[in-house]
Design the sequence.
């Protein structure tokens, strides 16, 4: 009996069988290189152990056919005995083959194809071939940056940063090659020779003869400067006479007293010099003046009484002065009513905007005119409220609200006295795609003795909510206050009561003035009530309406 292993067969496997079953092996079975028993041998059993350590007994009957048997684990096998018949081990199945094919496919995907492009990153989802190509590309780039051996210019060299603790590098200057244009001993000798030649041709400092000087060519301007003058100015200090023979013209500056004698020829007088002819003319004029001048009286020139003299044409008279005074009086009266016009705002308005602050110039009252020249958009509206501040812009109060603007036109306020030191405009735009071209003009009056009108529209107050309050209006100096409510629909009419404040809005008190909304006409107004110079006014809903739509409520002071 022989022991046969699944791997390359060798008789050494016999020892394994003897250890497991404890029997003697009488003979060996000849086995081929393919692991199969060579038929024709003696009748024998042989042992086969697979990868799972399962023991199989193959019996050769001598006819070339093998009978297979299994030996249960831990059971001894006796030669010649009939073991248990062999049962087929687990064979390959289609499902197992599919699993293997899937693993092979995944492996093929992970490897990638030869045509795959190189990976673009080091951590992306790429095949092995793509990563290998990326590595080769990086390697190629790295090799392209490694210069070949030998000295190179800086553009072809790799950048190097010397270590901060680099020791001194010894340089053998004598063995270094000569760089083009570098100074050499032979060139230095030539330069020294030239300098020595120049030294022999350079004169010593100081004035020297022309033969010992360096030839110089002067520019034309320098030659003109160095040309000797044709005349010479001479100054004689003390001599009475100039003892010299002068040829040509001599310019002399006098110092002391000069005696000029024996002048011959014509002497030219200075410009505007006095002459005998001019002196004669002057004397004639003086004689004429003398005949027209009266004799002095008490040492003074006599003067005619001016009241006896006739007035010149157009001279001022007392009558004319009276007329002038009357005109000045008229001018003074009219100046108290002078108008000052200002254009505060111009341009296109598309959104709700509060203007800058404007300061009154010289007027005591003003009126505002709004010119709307273009107004477009769906459901367009423009509400303008004039506000004033009496504390330099920290707090603002409503002074006048213009009626709602929905189309082009000119809209004006009455004359309003100034209450504060600053004025501004709150412009509320409603609708979709609104564009409003407008100009806001303000006319100031130098004086104003009328009432103090004010009004305010409130379109947001909810008349169906008890104790809802409106915006606040400054009614100071108003003689009367009136309230108006414009509503639509509803089953229960709201009641609005006028409230006033004397402490700048800290507390409000109810007045006897109220109005009940009209469910039929939609407009309800109170009787104008006599004001008591209240500072601020507002409306409060004291009876809530039901189903009422607010068009607006209006507070008017006048």
Sequence:
């Amino acid at each position: 009996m022989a022991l046969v292993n699944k791997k390359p067969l060798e008789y050494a496997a016999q020892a394994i069988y003897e250890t497991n079953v404890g029997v003697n092996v009488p003979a060996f079975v000849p086995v081929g290189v393919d692991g199969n028993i060579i038929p024709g041998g003696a009748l024998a059993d042989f042992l086969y152990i697979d990868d799972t350590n399962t023991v199989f007994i193959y019996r050769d009957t001598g006819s070339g056919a093998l009978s297979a048997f299994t030996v249960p684990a831990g059971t001894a096998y006796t030669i010649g005995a009939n073991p248990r018949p062999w049962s087929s081990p687990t064979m390959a199945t289609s499902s197992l083959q599919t699993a293997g094919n899937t693993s092979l496919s995944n492996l093929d995907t992970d490897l990638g194809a030869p045509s795959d492009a190189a990976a673009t990153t080091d951590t992306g989802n790429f095949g092995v071939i793509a990563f290998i190509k990326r590595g080769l590309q990086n390697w190629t780039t790295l090799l392209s940056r490694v210069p070949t051996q030998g000295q190179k210019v800086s553009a072809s060299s790799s950048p190097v940063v010397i270590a901060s603790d680099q020791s001194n590098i010894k340089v053998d200057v004598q063995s270094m090659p000569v760089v083009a244009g570098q100074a050499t001993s032979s060139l230095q000798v030539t330069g020294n020779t030239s300098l020595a030649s120049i030294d022999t041709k350079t004169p010593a400092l100081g004035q020297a003869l022309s033969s010992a000087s360096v030839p110089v060519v002067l520019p034309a301007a320098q030659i003109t400067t160095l040309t000797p003058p044709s005349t010479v100015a001479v100054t004689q200090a003390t001599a009475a006479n100039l003892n010299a023979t002068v040829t040509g013209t001599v310019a002399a500056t006098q110092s002391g007293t000069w005696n000029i004698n024996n002048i011959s020829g014509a002497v030219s007088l200075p410009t505007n010099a006095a002459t005998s002819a001019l002196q004669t003319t002057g004397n004639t004029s003086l004689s004429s003046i003398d005949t027209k001048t009266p004799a002095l009286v008490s040492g003074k020139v006599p003067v005619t009484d001016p009241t006896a003299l006739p007035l010149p044409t157009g001279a001022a008279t007392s009558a004319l002065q009276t007329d002038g005074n009357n005109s000045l009086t008229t001018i003074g009266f009219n100046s108290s009513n002078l108008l000052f016009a200002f254009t505060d705002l111009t341009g296109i308005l598309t959104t709700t905007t509060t203007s800058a602050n404007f300061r009154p110039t010289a007027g005591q009252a003003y009126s505002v005119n709004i010119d709307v020249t273009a107004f477009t958009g769906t459901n367009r509206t423009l509400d303008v409220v004039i506000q004033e501040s009496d504390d330099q812009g920290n707090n603002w109060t409503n002074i006048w609200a213009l009626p709602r603007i929905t189309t082009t036109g000119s809209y004006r306020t009455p004359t309003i006295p100034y209450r504060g030191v600053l004025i501004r405009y709150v412009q509320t735009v409603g609708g979709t795609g609104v564009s409003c071209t407008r100009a806001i003009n303000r006319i100031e009056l130098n004086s104003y003795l009328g009432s103090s009108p004010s009004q305010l529209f409130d379109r947001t107050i909810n008349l169906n909510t008890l104790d809802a309050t409106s915006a606040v209006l400054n009614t100071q100096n108003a003689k009367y206050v009136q309230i108006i409510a414009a509503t639509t629909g509803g089953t229960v009419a709201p009641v609005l009561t006028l409230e006033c404040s004397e402490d700048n809005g800290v507390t409000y008190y109810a007045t006897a003035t109220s109005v009940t909304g009209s469910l039929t006409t939609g407009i309800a107004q109170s009787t104008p009530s006599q004001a008591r110079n209240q500072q601020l006014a507002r409306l409060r809903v004291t009876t809530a309406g039901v189903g009422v739509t607010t068009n607006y409520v209006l507070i008017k002071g006048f």
Residues 454-557 form a domain with the Jelly Rolls fold (CATH 2.60.120.260). The CA atoms of residues 185 and 191 lie 10 Å apart.
